[in-house]
Specification:
heterodimer; A: 797 residues; alpha+beta; Aldehyde Oxidoreductase, domain 4; Aldehyde Oxidoreductase, domain 3; 19 helices; 31 strands; B: alpha+beta; DNA polymerase, domain 1; 5 strands; iron ion binding (chain A); AldOxase/xan_DH_MoCoBD1 (chain A); oxidoreductase activity (chain A); oxidoreductase (chain A)
């Protein structure tokens, strides 16, 4: 690349000397976490702070006949017992709909149930006491009389006329329906050499953040200001919603987000009990702390997936895929979540199925129904694991039907790498993807031919191993098309302010947040590289609505691509401002100067002319020595939002190598590979670890994780012992490779990487298990692939 | 059994005298009474491992042990192991390998890793994976953690050689 350093306006971060872009550097904030000196909300204490514990409904659906809190109020340490009716005077109810999801409906939801509970775990009363233990003691003494109502639990019968309607005002249990018909699907199926159908079943699961949801809400009655300390991915969204429902202006609400013990989309929502905690702080005029325990986390953290999707694929003998068709059904619990809604996952399934492939014939229906179970909403890789498992499962079925190798059928159908820009049948616009380069790379990484030979050799010894491949696309860097156009006050833009401090270091405030992905690191890497200062001189401040510019936060794989570009643009301005002052001080011109390694240097010979700390000293303490009319601007702010494309799609492919024990039904994950293309890579290690972590969450869904409900709507495994998550002993090593197609929409060129791993992992494993079981003539299209599922399919139980 | 009980515990080398309710678990005692918030609570029923501390040299789940049971014992937490420098190399390896994301499991993970390395100086990857199976991490997928522990084990062996 050519050097264009002489013109700061055309600066490319990739060209800078000592650039941190593309380099593995340790995250600046790690020592704190490694030494147990992090600051999580669950660690917080404030003067006069009280603790809230919620009494939760034991029924999935019941009327609240009466609540008797007299005995609880007499318990030691109890400050207040507050019912839904009482809290309704402080906080208004909400309805989780967005206007761009046409027809989406939901019922008003209250912070605490008022006269009816709609899922097991919905809060019925708040008990506030001087300690959590005292509040828990008192919960036992609140008497609630319920009249149990019939619970709607099975999504398959939720729309039957005989099934009770959960919210009478809505008329039925259908929350949302979307139908899409592109190309000529019937004609394509009729002209196909083979048509294959299957029903894919996805278990309801949840995020299991290791730190449960935690809030400290502090109402300052003197200032009339609410400070909310919360582990959230979207502080400004929380500010907006809290203000709206408490009757405050946004300026009266400050949201502070310190360390967050895992998020994964679980903490991008606003939960009823969190709203109740804000309201209780206002009502009781003191700080209130809510930390969910693990049982209530399982019962109230959003669940996800829980889809049953019928799929159909047409194929020619030469491997050409002629059409896809799906009919997806999902149950979201009794309410659409607020404010992001619970229709997004099904909507994404419709958008994404068939996305990597060339066929233009695609028909889809998705229906989202209400049930009396915990709420479902967006969790890491929203909709992608469903769409990917259905698509890739169908592609493998088609390959099997015509006797073609799974890699070969993908080679023949994936969109060509030189076909971009182009669009999918569902209208998704792709700027530049690299399916073929990615597939070629993974085939090489895994040594596909050798693995096939090994598989065949082991087969003779009665060892059943399988290879599974799954290509995928991923939505990243969402524009206002995601939420803003539907009326949600969820910002798609991010802002960054950078300033030179009085000793030549840099303070950077960004509206993206940190939950361990490396937001601080990538921001410091960009600022340091663009400005020409070392990373140890860049301090990044985030997670505080009083302190940072306004922006969306960290979710939907948007932090690096959107927040990173804002940091780049802001730093370019600061750099120009510094060089303008330096030129005056040095009697030179900005074009003749550069900033390298914390000093202003000559472009011509690299000679150090003035250290940044000396420049800062003059700017802040001796501006009198500057010529008249020169006003230095040692701070710059820029905002950024993608405008050309609604989403920056990424792509990739995953492969799994598994062994199935056909006697026990256990699946051993031997190895997993991922090749993905997130555009410009800012920190290779951070990207790889995002991929690996995402893969393992997908592997959990593939093999273990499932919220098991009985037919009365009782969650029967709401604890860590019965709800299985991946443990280190059963996880494989994961090799990650990259293809790099930067987005041309931004100067940085970065797309997102946080969800790619989760998007395709389960599909790869399911395909691998079916490959292993090929000699048994069985095909499993249900996850999690528990021993019971596998042995049932094999006819052994 | 509901009246406070006097206990004397050595925590990170300091003697602590306290009156605690018999039902108070060790994790809450460390976090709420001593403000040692590096010990984290992920499940409060002995599965996730985030609350792992050392009592009398053995790692235990502090959510499953009562504070009164620690009477007379030496308790070591992540703060103690950090300040003494005992696991400085392990922490550096975690940092260099980005073997933590949100950091919530990390104190317990480091406790368990150090426990393994004290018992077995050259653990194979599978042994590391096995030993850490009582410590859940939801962010990393474990691969980087295994790498960091493997690297530390090798470095310690080289130091000895």
């Amino acid at each position: 690349m050519s050097s264009i350093r002489s013109n700061p306006q055309r600066l490319s971060v990739l060209d800078r000397p000592n650039s941190y872009i593309g380099k593995t550097v340790p995250r600046p904030n790690l020592d704190r976490l490694l030494q147990g000196r992090g600051s999580y909300v669950s660690d917080m204490e404030l003067p006069r702070m009280a603790h809230v514990v919620f009494l939760r409904s034991p029924y999935a659906h019941a009327e609240i006949v009466s609540i008797d809190a007299a005995a609880a109020r007499r318990m030691p340490g109890v400050i207040a017992v507050v019912t839904g009716k009482e809290l309704a005077d402080v906080i208004t109810p909400w309805i989780g709909v967005l206007s761009h999801l046409k027809g989406l409906k939901s019922a008003p939801q209250s912070a605490i149930a008022v006269d009816r509970v709609c899922w097991q775990g919905e809060a019925v009363a708040a008990i506030v006491a001087t300690s959590r233990a005292a509040a828990e003691d008192a919960v036992e003494h609140v008497g609630v009389e319920y009249r149990e109502l019939e619970a709607v639990t099975d999504m398959r019968t939720a729309l039957d006329p005989a099934t009770p309607v959960i919210h009478a005002s809505l008329g039925d249990n259908l929350a949302f329906e979307r139908i899409l018909d592109a190309g000529a699907v019937d004609q394509a199926f009729a002209g196909s050499d083979a048509v294959v159908e299957a029903e894919f079943i996805f278990g309801r699961h949840t995020g299991v953040t290791l730190e449960p949801r935690s809030v400290v809400a502090d109402w300052d009655a003197a200032e009339a200001r609410l400070t909310i300390y919360q582990g959230t991915q979207a502080p400004h969204m929380v500010q907006n919603i809290a203000a709206l429902h408490l009757g405050l202006r946004e300026a009266q609400v400050r949201v502070v987000c310190k360390d967050v013990g895992g998020s994964f989309g679980i903490k991008v929502h606003i939960y009823a009990d969190e709203m109740a905690t804000y309201a209780l702080a206002k009502l009781l005029r003191r700080p209130i702390k809510f930390v969910a325990d693990r049982v209530e986390s399982f019962n109230t953290d959003i669940h996800a997936r829980d889809h049953r999707c019928k799929g159909k694929i047409g194929v020619q003998r030469d491997g050409t895929i002629t059409a896809f068709e799906i009919d997806d059904l999902t149950g979201i619990g009794p309410y659409s979540m607020y404010p992001r809604t619970s229709a997004i996952e099904a909507n994404q399934v419709v958008n994404l199925v068939g996305g990597p492939y060339t066929t233009k014939n695609y028909r889809a229906r998705a229906r989202v129904v209400f049930q009396n179970k915990n709420v479902m909403c967006q969790y890491r890789a929203v909709g992608h694991p469903i769409a990917c498992s259905v698509t890739e499962g169908l592609v493998d079925l088609a390959a099997m039907k015509i006797g073609m190798d799974p890699v070969e059928i993908r080679r023949r159908n994936l969109i060509a790498d030189d076909a971009y820009p182009c669009a999918s049948p569902s209208g998704l616009r792709f700027e530049q993807l690299s399916h073929h380069a990615s597939l070629a790379k993974i085939v090489e990484m895994m040594n596909y031919e050798a693995l096939r030979a090994e598989q065949a050799a082991l087969r003779k010894q009665g060892i059943h191993r399988g290879i599974g491949i799954a290509s995928f696309i991923e939505v990243t860097n969402p524009s206002a098309a995601f939420y803003g156009v539907g009326g949600a006050k969820i910002s798609s833009q991010d802002g960054v302010a950078v300033r030179l401090d009085a000793q030549g270091s840099v303070i950077c405030q960004t509206s993206i947040t940190e939950q361990g992905q490396g937001s601080q690191s990538l921001t410091a890497q960009i600022v340091g590289s663009v400005l020409g200062v070392s990373m140890d001189r860049v301090r990044v401040i985030l997670g505080d609505t009083d302190m940072t510019p306004y922006g969306g936060g960290t979710w939907a794989s948007r932090g690096a691509g959107i927040g990173g570009e804002a940091a780049l643009q802001a730093t370019k301005i600061l750099r120009k401002n510094i060089l303008d002052v330096a030129a005056v001080i040095l009697q030179s011109t900005p074009a003749e100067l550069d900033i390298i390694d914390n000093a202003v240097v000559n472009v011509s010979d690299g000679a150090r002319r003035i250290e940044l700390d000396e420049l800062a000293r003059i700017v802040y303490f001796r501006p009198d020595t500057l010529p008249p009319g020169i006003q230095p601007e040692p701070m710059a702010t820029r905002h950024y939002v993608p405008r050309d494309y609604p989403f920056a799609f990424t792509n990739g492919v995953q492969a799994a190598w598994v062994e199935v024990d056909t006697d026990t039904g256990f699946v051993k994950l031997l190895k997993h590979w991922v090749v993905e293309d997130c555009g410009t890579i800012i920190n290779p290690q951070l990207v790889d670890e995002q991929i690996r972590g995402g893969v393992v969450q997908g592997l959990g869904a593939a093999l273990f994780e499932k919220c098991v409900y009985d037919d009365r709507g009782q969650l029967t495994n709401a604890n860590m012992a019965d709800y299985l998550v991946p443990m280190s002993g059963e996880m494989p090593d994961i090799d990650v490779g990259h293809v790099v197609s930067p987005t041309r929409e931004s100067e940085l060129g970065a797309k997102g990487a946080g969800e790619a791993g989760t998007a395709g992992a389960a599909a790869a494993v399911a395909n691998a298990v079916n490959d292993a079981l090929k000699p048994f003539g069985t095909m499993i299209t249900e996850i999690p692939l528990t021993p019971q599922v596998i042995l049932s399919a094999l006819g052994r139980i | 059994m509901t009246a406070p009980v006097a206990i004397s515990v050595t925590v990170n080398g300091e003697r602590v005298e306290a009156h605690v309710l018999p039902r108070l678990n060790l994790a809450d005692f460390l976090r709420e009474h001593l403000k040692l918030t590096g010990t984290h609570l992920g499940c409060e029923h002995g599965v996730c491992g985030a609350c792992t501390v050392r009592v009398g040299g053995e790692i235990v789940r502090s959510c499953l042990m009562l504070a009164v049971q620690a009477n007379g014992a030496a308790v070591e937490t992540i703060e103690g192991l950090s300040d003494s420098g005992e696991i400085a190399d392990l922490q550096a390896a975690f940092r260099d390998r980005n073997a933590l994301q949100c950091g919530f499991c990390t104190p317990g993970m480091l406790m368990a890793a150090q426990d393994l390395l004290r018992e077995n100086r050259t653990p194979a990857r599978e042994e590391i994976r096995e030993h850490l199976s009582g410590n859940y991490c939801r962010c990393t997928g474990y691969h980087a953690i295994i790498d960091a522990i493997e690297t530390t084990a090798r470095a310690r062996m080289e130091l000895k050689a």
